[in-house]
Amino acid sequence: MSIDAKDINFEELGFGYMDLPYRWRAYWKDGQWYKEGLEESNMIPVSEASTAFHYGQNIFEGMKAYRGQDDQIRLFRPDENAKRLNASARRLIMPEYPEEKFIEAVKETVKANADFVPPYGSGATLYIRPFMIGTGDNIGVGPAPEYIFSVFVMPVGPYFKGGFGTSKFVTSEYDRAAPHGTGAAKVAGNYGASLKPGKDAKSEGYADVVYLDPATHTKIEEAGSANFFVIERDGHKFVTPASPSILPSITKKSILYLAENRLGLPVEEGDIFIDDLGRYEEAGAMGTAAVISPIGSITHQGEEHKFDYSDQPGPLTTALYKELTGIQYGDKEAPEGWVVMVD
Ligand SMILES: *Cc1c(COP(=O)(O)O)cnc(C)c1O
Questions:
Q1: What CATH number has the domain spanning 5-156?
Q2: Which ranges of 40-120 does DSSP label H, i.e. alpha helix?
């Protein structure tokens, strides 16, 4: 049974699943999408031989809907999520879901569950999870004969406990992706590989894992399920890793633009060596769920490196956070095309 919006305390939400009244579904067979629209059940009956269960044909996206001070509901760069979903689909030989349909599906799902979009100022947002799976009868290794695309939503609070405070991260011996693997695609398999390192880090008291580059283990790649950045002490340069095995974050792309064009910082996509963290004053994680989460320290091979701002968010991390969230909630002017109204 789905939940009633009146029973939710939006200020106290964590990051958890809720069964809301409506979700979008679309079905693909013989080269075409059909039966596209809202459905009420959160269950999906599919063949036991679906490739999603056996061969990892399983891609997803993560986005949010934001309620502004004017009570209007906004999406942040949904065209970018549509493009990335289709890039992931091509990597796993799945059908694309056209960009206009993707945006319509997201808007319709948000509108149908509008009572659940948290109020402005509550600290919560509506998390949106589009995904696609391979289905149908198939047992040999190969792409599925059928597919399902779906979008479901739920209100969520902060991804890391404590919200906008500094967290401690730790490096892992494990990789989330291979040098020429699927790291740049948003595929479920990357997450399967990350469950153990993530759980190990959390059980040792860290917020999440810092992944090093899978080829040499000398450079930082990702911060758990978010992209990574540092601010160099010399010149306050904003630096974020460049690598073909990183998932290209839309938040990262946006922050690169804002750092350069709104804060006037020099920016670089380049190497951040794990043995050379002394050059940086601030560090953080960036993603839809993480927003901007300041990182206070990184422990590597048993030694904790503290950034200059290890107990409280640094000034530039804070300025970037305010700029980004100001745009997302409609309080600050957005660059052309970044904010899409749901109605
Ligand atoms: C989704 C994701 C991100 C963040 O991407 P956004 O578009 O900013 O939400 C970063 N890293 C990984 C591994 C991801 O799956």
A1: 3.30.470.10
A2: 51-54, 78-91, 99-112
CATH dotted code for 167-329: 3.20.10.10
In DSSP terms, 149 is beta-bridged to 26, 132
Residue-wise pLDDT tens digits, 142-160: 999 999 999 999 999 977 6
Environment class of residue 199 by beta-carbon count within 10 Å: exposed (0-12), middle (13-18) or buried (19+)? exposed
Would you list the domain boundaries of the chain? 5-156, 167-329
- Residue of 217, 193, 197, 220 lying closest to 207 (CA atoms): 197
pLDDT band per the 50, 70, 90 thresholds, residue 259? very high
Ligand 1 binding pocket, CB closer than 6 Å? 62, 186, 222, 225-227, 247, 249-252, 287-288
Identify the CA nearest to 17 among candidates 123, 131, 149, 156.
156
Q: pTM value? A: 0.97
Q: How many angstroms does the Cα of residue 30 sit away from the middle of ligand 1? A: 31
Contact status, residue 309 vs residue 296, Cβ threshold 8 Å: yes
3-state DSSP call for residue 170?
strand
pLDDT in tens, 56-99: 999 999 999 999 999 999 999 999 999 999 999 999 999 999 99
